[in-house]
Amino acid sequence: MAPDGEPTSGADAAALASLQIAGLVPLSTVDWPGMLVATAFLQGCPWQCVYCHNPDLMASRTPGTVAWDEVAALLRRRRGLLDGLVLTGGEPTRQLGALAAARWAREEGFAVGLHTAGAYPARLAALLPHVDWVGLDVKATAARYDTVAGARHAGERATASLALVLRAAAERGTGYEVRTTVAPGMASDTLVLARDLRAAGVRTYALQQARAEGTLSLADAHPPGWDAEFAALAEEVRGLGFETLHVR
Ligand code: SF4
C-alpha cells in the first residue's frame, strides 16, 4: 500500500477522480451475500432492460454526485467494520475508473465485489483479477437476449462474460452468483436458460422475480397467475441441481 493509503500511481489517481458515482450506500447486507459492504453506484449503462430498477443510472453523460474521495473516506473510517466494497450500477465495467477503484480497495485491505451484466467483456477480463466476488446478470437465452436487454449483440457479450467469470472461479477461486430477473412472459425462456447455465457449469444461481416499482417501462409485473407461474418455474429450476439456488 502507498503511504497514507494514497493511490499507488498518478494514472490510478486520475482514473479514480474521473469516476461518475451516482450514489453510495454506506452499509449493505444484501449486495454481497454474507458480507458487510459499502456499495457504490456507478453511472451509465449501454443497455435498456424493461425491468431496470435504476433507469436514472442509464445515461452515460450524467455526471456523478459522489466524489471518489467520499467513498475512500467512508471505507477508511469503517475499517474493521466493513468487509468490502461493491461496485454496482448502471454497468460499472463501463467506467475505466472501476479498475482503479478495485485496486485501491484491495490495497486498503477490503474485499471487492462487482455487479455486472457483462456488457464489456474485455474490461471485465481486466477487472476480474482484482475482484473477489461477482454478481453476474444473465438475462435470457441467445434468441431473446437482445430484446430483453434492448441492445444488439448483448447476448454475445453476456456469453463471453459468463465464460470469463467461470474461468476466474475455476482458476482463482473468484466467488460468483449468476442471476436472472424474470418478468412475466419470460418463464419458459428462463427454464431453458437455467438448463443451459447448469450445463455450462454454473453452481450458484439466483432467480429474481421482476418488480414494477421504480421501472420506466414494466407496467405490470403481476398479471393474474404470475406468482404461481414464477413459483412453478422456481421448482423446476430447483430440480436442475445447482449447488446453491436463491429465489427472490
Ligand atoms: S443491464 Fe442492468 S443497469 Fe443496465 S439497463 Fe439492464 S438492468 Fe438496468
From TrEMBL:
Q: Name one GO molecular function term.
A: catalytic activity
Gene3D superfamilies the UniProt entry points to: Aldolase class I
**Which top-rank group of organisms is this from?**
Bacteria
The record ties this protein, via Pfam families, to: Radical_SAM
Q: Where is the Radical SAM core domain?
A: 32-248
> Cofactor(s) for this protein?
[4Fe-4S] cluster
| Keyword match Cell inner membrane | no
Q: Which keywords are on file for this protein?
A: 4Fe-4S, Iron, Iron-sulfur, Metal-binding, S-adenosyl-L-methionine
* InterPro entries tied to this protein: Aldolase_TIM, NrdG2, Organic_radical-activating, rSAM, rSAM_sf
Q: Which PANTHER family match?
A: GLYCYL-RADICAL ENZYME ACTIVATING ENZYME YJJW-RELATED, PYRUVATE FORMATE-LYASE-ACTIVATING ENZYME
Name of the protein: Anaerobic ribonucleoside-triphosphate reductase activating protein
Q: What is the lineage of its organism?
A: Bacteria, Bacillati, Actinomycetota, Actinomycetes, Micrococcales
